[in-house]
Amino acid sequence: MAGAKVTIYQVAALAGVSPATVSRVMNGARVSPESERLVRAAAEQLAFTPNRTARRLRRQYSEVIALIIPDIENPFFTALARGVENRARAGGYSVVLCNTDDDPVRESTYIDIALAEHMAGVILAPADAASDVSRLVARQRPVVAVDRSLNRADIDAVTVDNRAGGLSAAESLFAAGFSRVACITGPSSVETAQLRMEGWQQATRDRSEAGDAELLRYADYRVDGGRLAMAELLALREPPDAAVVANNLMAAGALDALQDAGLSPAAFGLAVFGDLPFASFERRGIRVVDLPARELGEAAAALLLDRIAGDDGPARTVVLRTDHRTRERQ
Fold first, then answer.
1. C-alpha distances in angstroms, 16 versus 25, 27, 35, 227, 249?
2. How far apart, in whole angstroms, are the C-alpha atoms of residue 29 and residue 300?
3. Which of 80, 90, 299, 308 is the most buried (most CB within 10 A)?
4. What pLDDT does 2 receive?
5. CA–CA distance, 293 with 286 (Å, rounded to integer)
6. CA distance 124 to 114
7. Which residues have a Cβ under 8 Å from the Cβ of 171 and sit 6 or more positions away?
8. Buried b / exposed e across 99-129, counting CB within 10 Å, b at 16+?
9. What predicted TM-score, i.e. pTM, was given to this entire model?
């Protein structure tokens, strides 16, 4: 179409949808597949190009979103970031990656930067369930919690069923014939660590009235934390013969401690959340709870793009399933 610039109203008329639906499609927000097909076909027929500069000025924020995560070196968060980026790019947004090392002060600084740079929204894997996002909310900047939720009912969240994963992991070890199953989990202030521990606790209580508190160790979700926790467990007067480890980096440290003690995963049962990060480890006999990291990122970005596009409905929580079969690495 030559001459005057094509508007979304013309695209909407040709597609047989509302202008709001055209806007949602162009912003990458979710609509029905049929509506998206009609809008895309109409836009192509009319040679419609969204005026991104005008949109940016009108909304007074950039087409950039912040992804704030605790540890980019962890392959789980690397895959999650890829999912966010894929979905954001499809919606016309770029992603700035911020690494907090689970430090609430650094996290707060990145939130301030996102506001100062007029970023369109924030996806946050919070350092703590009490992480402060009030400044984002006060400035009406969309925010979605991913992997870990917040102690707020008004914030969207995308998580996995961590308690069920912990239960499945522990039960798989008991089913394999192990009788004294320990748990190495993350900081008690982190939701994923607590929920995975509760799943393990449920499985152990099903077999003994109170469970065995000495078999529980809290660590820091890092390799050294897993190594120290496993060494402490092996030094007990009655050590465990298996363990649920609540993330992959701690599992790498736990494997170091097992090797130092002359134990292999075939002899000492191990169930791990997420794939082991290093190829050098012997993987036979290790049970893995699959975590849908990329899908978490994609779902979080889709929620955020909905909010950026104007969705002001009630906060939503999306819970993805882990692989409860807890497959065994060969």
1. 14, 18, 9, 61, 52
2. 12
3. 80
4. 45
5. 20
6. 11
7. 203, 326
8. bbebeeebbbebbeebbeeebbbbbbbbbbe
9. 0.78
